[in-house]
Specification:
DNA Polymerase III, Chain A, domain 2; 13-stranded antiparallel beta sheet; 12-stranded antiparallel beta sheet
């Protein structure tokens, strides 16, 4: 196997492959590798951890067809550090040579026969707007848990509603729900749970792409975007009954400008700790935000706001609150609440397709 390619093009693909390749110390070293396959002037790069896989198709100057498997992290780091000119890669026997300019590295290979065969979802595919889907993932995936002991919470529910597809994620402390009106990626009534990690990686791959193609199998989903194909095993879990957490109405609603709200919470986070809530006093004409952290100090911010309902004071985890404000689009944001111990809902003014629910933290004073 031998080919020549632009360093930046190869480095970008290898970075994506290195993120997916297994970093576990297991009995299959090839899973920590990236699989190279050159056919004519096309290079196929594949990485997998057996649950998630990604494949990149690159146009290269093919000099000799062949296959090779090498440590994904190692070759990614080497190619990224190479001079900014074309890189030549050649595999012979038990090593691969990476060269550019006056630089040359030789790396030991894994047995190509140990690399697993990647099976994609073979059902009929649908094509959707990559921009809209990426925006939806950005709003929802942030609420998924990373705790593998609570597997159902690490996934994103995709469920077909009568006139839309709904994306939902929760880690039990916050909940994000995004509607995609008119979407047809799922059959009526169908629902799947996709690992949040897979969708987080897909969000990176989308970049500036205009369209995304999605196919669903019995236990896996495949997404094609640009020169990349991502396949993930679906989670065979029961997703929490999230709708019961969302009230039909909220008696108290404060409306304020989104950007000043976001910046105020960012500043207060300097003093906040995980167990130190940001206090929101929702008053008639303003929102007063404050943090008091023992042994550190205190901070106060005041924002113009309009309140419908009763004045109320609620405390929130600063990171969860910041994530919710950041996920909302538009110039204005509403905070809807019932009382200080029940979840509050953040929405963008005029946006009926997204909500972010966050549990309050108890205020001690």
């Amino acid at each position: 196997m031998k080919f020549r390619v632009e360093r930046e093009l190869l480095s970008e693909a290898l970075s994506g492959g290195a993120r997916v390749a297994s970093n576990r110390n297991n009995a299959m070293p090839a899973l920590s590798g990236v699989h190279f396959e050159v056919k004519s002037d096309v290079l196929i790069l594949t990485s997998t951890d057996n649950d998630l896989s990604v494949r990149f198709a690159l146009a290269v100057a093919g000099l000799q067809d062949g296959v090779a498997v090498v440590s994904a992290k190692l070759i990614s780091d080497i190619v990224r550090a190479m001079p900014e000119e074309k890189v030549t890669i050649e595999a012979q026997e038990d090593e691969i040579t990476v060269s550019a300019g006056s630089s040359e590295f030789k790396i030991h290979l894994f047995a190509a026969s140990d690399f697993p065969n990647i099976v994609t979802a073979g059902t009929q595919s649908v094509t959707i707007s990559a921009k809209v889907f990426a925006e939806s993932l950005n709003q929802v995936v942030r609420a998924a848990s990373s705790d593998m002991q609570r597997l159902a919470l690490t996934g994103v529910l995709m469920v077909a509603e009568p006139d839309s597809v709904c994306l939902v994620a929760t880690d039990s402390y916050r909940l994000a729900v995004r509607e995609l009106p008119g979407a047809t990626m799922l059959g009526h009534g169908a629902e799947i749970v996709v690992p949040g990690r897979a969708l987080d990686e897909l969000k990176r791959l989308i970049g500036e792409a205009e369209t995304l193609t999605m196919a669903l199998g019995e236990n896996r989903a495949t997404f094609e975007v640009g020169n990349a194909t991502l396949t993930t095993t679906l989670l065979n879990v029961e997703f929490p009954k999230y709708k019961q957490l969302i009230s039909a109405s909220y008696p108290n609603k404060a409306t304020t400008a989104r950007e000043p709200f976001l910046e105020a919470v960012r500043r207060l986070r300097i003093l906040a700790r995980e167990t130190t809530p940001v206090r929101l006093e929702m008053l008639k004409d303003s929102i007063r935000l404050s943090v008091v952290t023992q042994d550190l100090g205190q901070g106060v911010e005041e924002l113009e706001a309009k309140l419908e309902g009763s004045e109320i004071t609620v405390g929130f985890n600063s990171q969860y609150l910041l994530d919710g404000i950041d996920a909302i689009s538009g110039d204005e944001i509403t905070i809807e609440s019932t009382d200080p111990v029940k979840p509050a809902v953040l929405r963008g003014v005029g946006d009926k397709n997204y909500l972010y629910l966050v549990m309050p933290q108890r205020l001690t004073t």
